[in-house]
Design brief:
Blueprint lengths: L5 H17 L1 E6 L5 H12 L3 E5 L2 H14 L5 E4 L10 E5 H4 L11 E5 L7 H13 L4 E6 L11 H4 L2 E5 L1 H6 L5 E6 L5 H6 L11 H7 L2 H15 L3 E6 L2 H13 L4 E3 L6 H13 L4 E4 L12 E7 L5 H9 L17 E6 L3 H5 L19 E3 L6 E3 L2 E3 L15 H16 L5 E2 L6 E5 L3 E7 L5 E7 L5 E6 L1 H15 L18 H8 L9 H12 L1 H8 L4
Helix pairs in contact: 1-2, 2-3, 10-11, 15-16, 17-18
């Protein structure tokens, strides 16, 4: 059974308390927080007859797989276009398939709404209201990364207040997401032109934005800036209309860069061909008009180009989230990802301000601009989120006397190590190899240049695997997640006595072969032994040759 991260445990406790107190709970957790793990843990805590709602088949499949990992004994059923059965304790349902069959729903004890910002839509409300009619004591929980909606309707009337949250900033700080780096790029006074536009749909087509941003001059600047800042990165482009997305893809291809467009008009097989080409490296850029904001994740993407306008923070977070995930190294070998570039040719970063700030669930229209900071070089007031001044090019946070970022990283590493149930041993005192050991698994982080760190792990009776390649904190987070998923022995935690018991004579004898004369405790010796027994595999993973 998966062990939850510390904040996941906290959120599940908060949600359970809210459900017990007022029968409703809304959890706001950014992309990468592991909301399905929390959803499954909450379902286990609450019990009873449960319904998990999502609006797409891909989410039904993803959620149910993760649910089973967290609750291996759970009995799971499905209500989709092809499977319609309510016999299990927990039923995963597609909203469009269930909305016309609410009369067949049994009495439910708990509904969990995934992507809960959709939950006030008529089809969702039809299901929820029918469930309340059958059981006025029904409990309702919702999980979302983006609780505000572009139509101005809030979730407050359905859920009340947010019971707990885990924002992007905390996930970046803890190493579960990469750092976003924002750039605002103004072409031919496009920013002023966009400001003058009337209302534009945040999630649909924006014809007014297309009139401003879809032309040869802007497209040429998109490609020039991409080549300057992100030419080695796999990229997703969010355009204002489908035609705009197609034109941008054509512009990239015309410049000799592999690119393709996906849209809601394409069938599933055609989309798959594009995604397969991206995964194989046959193309580097995929363009779209807001069809890739949910249910699509390709972790190697490390550049997001915004060619549309956002009036609220929710769509910005959804778009940026496509590039913030860390990369699982076993699935995508050889890819090192430490940050994500966000190239904004619209007003999204300008309007939303700080990408990592909290979100509001009340009714609102999202007008006005976000918080600002002053550029020390040209004295312009610029959005708080940007890393480079759009007016003079000043790079924030890169002055020699700016110690804030260094302090931030050091604090993060301490927090991760303190929050981990396992003790990481600094082997050889070099600071380049840290290992944690259990009875069913071990994991560690290794670097050969103090720049790129590799997370490595092994389950008992399995091969050594590469987990992630990135920053130190990202590697620590990945190693800790590996231990949480695979170490089942409770006595392997750092609170147990064997961590301080002296090494055994047998351990000392084995380690003497590698010239380790004073291994310290029994636990220290186990960490050294796991490293030496798998040293060749570790060296292969990090690219060291003897």
């Amino acid at each position: 059974m998966i062990r939850l991260r510390d904040y996941q445990q906290r959120i599940v406790r908060s949600a359970k308390a809210a459900l017990d107190k007022r029968q409703k709970a809304l959890i706001v957790a950014a992309t990468g927080a592991g909301k399905t793990v929390m959803l499954a843990a909450l379902a286990h805590e609450v019990g009873g007859r449960q319904l998990v709602l999502q609006h797409r088949l891909e989410l039904v499949q993803q959620n149910s797989r993760t649910f089973r990992k967290v609750n291996p004994e759970a009995k799971i059923g499905y209500w989709t276009a092809n499977k319609r059965h309510f016999g299990a304790d927990t039923t995963f349902a597609m909203v469009p398939s269930l909305a016309n069959h609410v009369d067949r729903m049994p009495k439910l004890d708990l509904i969990i709404a995934d992507e809960a910002h959709h939950s006030i839509a008529p089809t969702w409300m039809k299901i929820i209201e029918a469930a309340y009619d059958a059981n006025p004591d029904l409990k309702l929980a919702g999980f979302t990364a983006t609780p505000s909606r572009s139509d101005g309707q809030g979730l407050k009337k359905l859920f009340g207040e947010v019971c707990d949250s885990e924002p992007i900033s905390d996930l970046v700080r803890k190493g579960f997401l990469v750092q976003p780096r924002g750039f605002i790029i103004d072409v031919e006074h496009s920013r002023e032109k966009l400001k003058k536009l009337g209302n534009q749909s945040d999630f649909g087509e924006q014809s007014g934005v297309e009139d401003i941003l879809n032309n040869e001059v802007v497209n040429a600047e998109v490609i020039r800036n991409w080549r300057d800042k992100a030419a080695d990165r796999q990229t997703v482009v969010f355009a204002s209309t489908v035609r705009h997305a197609e034109d941008v893809a054509a512009a990239f291809r015309g410049a000799g860069i592999g690119a393709a467009c996906v849209s809601g008009e394409m069938d599933e097989q055609s989309r798959k061909k594009v995604f397969d080409a991206l995964a194989k490296g046959e193309i580097q850029v995929v363009t779209n008009c807001m069809v890739l904001t949910e249910g699509w994740d390709f972790p190697p993407v490390s550049c997001v180009i915004l060619l549309r306008r956002c009036s609220s923070k929710s769509p910005l977070i959804q778009m940026a989230g496509r590039g913030l995930r860390t990369v699982p190294a076993e699935k995508y070998p050889g890819i090192v990802k430490k940050d994500c570039l966000i190239l904004d040719f619209g007003l999204s970063l300008m309007t939303a301000g700080d990408l990592t700030a909290s979100l509001d669930i009340s009714d609102h229209k999202g007008n006005g601009e976000g918080p600002k900071k002053q550029c020390p070089d040209c004295l312009s007031m610029v959005p708080m989120a940007v890393k480079e001044c759009p007016n003079c090019g000043h790079k924030f946070g890169e002055k020699p006397d700016d110690k804030g970022e260094l302090t931030h990283v050091e604090l993060t590493e301490v927090e991760i190590l303190n929050a981990s149930p396992w003790k990481y041993i600094n082997l050889f005192g070099s600071g380049r190899i840290e290992v944690a050991s259990g009875f069913d698994a071990w994991a560690g982080v290794v670097t050969k240049d103090d720049d790129t760190w590799y997370a490595i792990g092994q389950k008992k009776n399995s091969r050594t695997v590469s987990l992630v390649a990135g920053s130190h904190i990202q590697a620590l987070a990945a190693a800790d997640d590996f231990m949480r998923m695979n170490e089942t022995g409770s006595t392997a935690k750092k609170t147990h006595r064997w961590l301080t018991d002296p090494a055994t004579d047998a351990q000392k004898d084995i380690l003497s072969r590698w010239q380790v004369s004073t291994p310290g405790s029994k636990y220290d010796a186990a960490c050294y032994m796991n490293f030496f027994f798998h040293q060749r595999e570790i060296e292969r993973i990090i690219g060291v040759r003897r």
